[in-house]
Amino acid sequence: MRTKLIIDTDPGVDDAFALTLAALSEDVDLLGVTTVFGNVGLEATTRNARRVLALCQRDDVPVAAGAARPLVHHQPREARTVHGSDGLSGRSGVLPEPVRELERSDAVTLLAELLTSAEEPVTIAPIGPLTNIAALLAAHPHLASKIDRLVIMGGGIARGNTTAAAEFNIWSDPEAAHRVLAGGEVPCVLVPLDLTHRCAVDASWLSALAASGPIGAALHSLIPDYLEHYRRALGFEGIVVHDAVAVAEAIRPGILRTESLPVRVECSFGPARGMTVVDVRRSAQRADTDGANGPFTDVAVDADLDGLREFLLERLIGRRV
């Protein structure tokens, strides 16, 4: 069975891995890619997405640029210290120039067009700030039924990465994340930091990728700044491929184990801004308080970690598993 998929992204090194994963998977119909501000500015994220698709020889996939800033408040800072000056460790120039022109329409328009023309529900994988998705649901509520599910990389149950409480994608536009997760229009799977960090890949995995061929070598060449960051964060030679974990679930539903839990997003200003408040209490306890009515989100809490790493590597080196 082929997955109808759209990716909304802000490349970013792990976004580049995730986009390549989808682009090379034969059981995926990659209908389109939309870009958003995030790890770096919109111009750079759009250029990076188009170059990754060119690397994968996927000039059949339309790309449209979306939101350049959050819905309400300005993004306080980008993630250049993690992803480098251009989002790809300063090495986006090693990727080929895009063949296909950027769509003249904006991201929300392309999303609406792709959903309208789809003959069956489509999975959307938002792996950056949720600004484009919030705008889509607000402007085209009738299209919610055309979305099978949103598989979102974002948030954390017990940790943040941008602040002690907040993960970067949610923190970059908490109001948009609240609109999407609390809206209830579309089933959501949230893939949080707690799990993606456990899925970190090590030096041997990265070496196998680099030795696999031109695409693997190109992806490996994008990681120096990212690797340096995670060398400090993890304490070993490896990286966290957050967004690729989410896209793996989008491609193969159930590769991650999820629990249906109430999730809210903290939108006030203060040390918890951007926090995903995930209610992990037993349902009986929630029923005695204010947590019984949701909104509920399928939160990814576990996986066969070695099996997932194998799935990612095999797909990225061009062998379907």
TrEMBL record:
A Pfam cross-reference name: IU_nuc_hydro
GO cellular component, one term: cytosol
Transmembrane parts of this sequence: none
Keyword annotations of the record: Glycosidase, Hydrolase
Residue stretches making up the Inosine/uridine-preferring nucleoside hydrolase domain: 5-307
Highest taxon in the source lineage: Bacteria
Single Gene Ontology MF annotation: purine nucleosidase activity
Gene3D superfamilies attached to this UniProt entry: Ribonucleoside hydrolase-like
Gene Ontology BP term (one): purine nucleoside catabolic process
Name under which the protein is recorded: Nucleoside hydrolase
Organism: Prauserella cavernicola
Taxonomic lineage from the root: Bacteria, Bacillati, Actinomycetota, Actinomycetes, Pseudonocardiales
